[in-house]
Design brief:
279 residues; Farnesyl Diphosphate Synthase; globular; single chain
């Protein structure tokens, strides 16, 4: 039993569980905000969860050699706690499940979700090393609202402001996610956009992106802006400010956790206002 629990824990850790849960939670919030029925919400959440598992496992699989070289003991594949063939099979199974679970939402939604996943896989497979490393995050996150809305009757598109907010939040996640590993990444030849900008500039860019995201979610929906929605903006400033200060310590993931917290705030905003579709 102890060995089984250890194996399950290794699979969970290799998936990058916090980002997986955060993105899945955003998808669930979007589905509820759009008024998807219970079965539709379940399939959307399951599809996104499967897709994110495939992305996380692929990331650890591709980075296994580099992780071993830099001594990242917390990486199950690099540490030998999970075999590479097993993780490769897991990536494939999760990818197939993600596409299959997208089909109940219709072919347009499935195509959009597949495009988002291809973008995320491309990041894992090499885009992370280039100056354009932020683009897969922008595309994959920006397409998430479209995947959810296209499953509604008539396959409507989401409003532009919502897709822009999702894309900006994804970009912010990219900048802060790599901060703790900047030195290790540079040592093995990974030079994405955050690596080229440096830690200080990357934190500043991430903070600005998160703030703009929250402003879009507050001002984007039609109608009068309530006091509760306006209060979200200073709350986000405080969260990001705390993440900025704590994240200056070497190896800290405080900035990344702050962005994940803001993502939860953004989901609450969506649930409180509802989301219209584009005309």
């Amino acid at each position: 039993m102890r060995r089984l629990v250890g194996t399950v824990a290794a699979w969970v850790r290799a998936s990058h569980p916090l980002p997986v849960l955060a993105v899945t939670a955003v998808a669930a919030g979007l589905a509820v905000s759009y008024g998807r029925h219970a079965a539709g919400t379940v399939t959307v959440v399951a599809a996104v969860l499967a897709g994110q598992l495939s992305v996380g496992w692929l990331n650890d699989l591709v980075d296994a050699r580099r992780d071993a070289e830099t001594g990242r003991a917390g990486k199950p594949v690099a540490a030998g706690r999970l075999s590479r063939p097993a993780v490769a099979a897991g990536v494939l199974a999760a990818a197939v499940a993600a596409v299959a679970l997208s089909l109940p939402s219709g072919l347009p939604a499935t195509a959009v979700h597949l495009a988002a996943l291809v973008s995320a896989w491309a990041y894992d497979l090499g885009a992370k090393k280039s100056a354009l490393s932020v683009l897969p995050y922008a595309l994959s996150f920006g397409l998430l609202p479209a995947f959810v809305s296209l499953g509604l009757p008539g396959a409507p598109l989401p409003p532009v402001w919502l897709m822009a907010a999702a894309a900006l939040l994804g970009c912010a996640a990219h900048f802060v996610n790599v901060l703790p590993d900047l030195a290790d990444d540079l040592a093995v030849g990974v030079r994405g956009l955050p690596h080229r900008l440096g830690a200080g500039r990357s934190r500043a860019v991430a903070a600005a992106l998160v703030l703009v995201t929250s402003v879009l979610l507050v001002l984007g929906p039609s109608g009068a802006v309530s006091g509760a929605r306006l209060a979200a903006v200073p709350a986000v400033v405080l969260i990001i400010g705390a993440g900025w200060l704590l994240g200056r310590r070497p190896g800290s993931r405080a900035a990344f956790h702050a962005v994940l917290t803001v993502a939860v705030v953004d989901v609450v905003l969506l649930l409180s206002t509802g989301v219209p579709t584009a005309a």
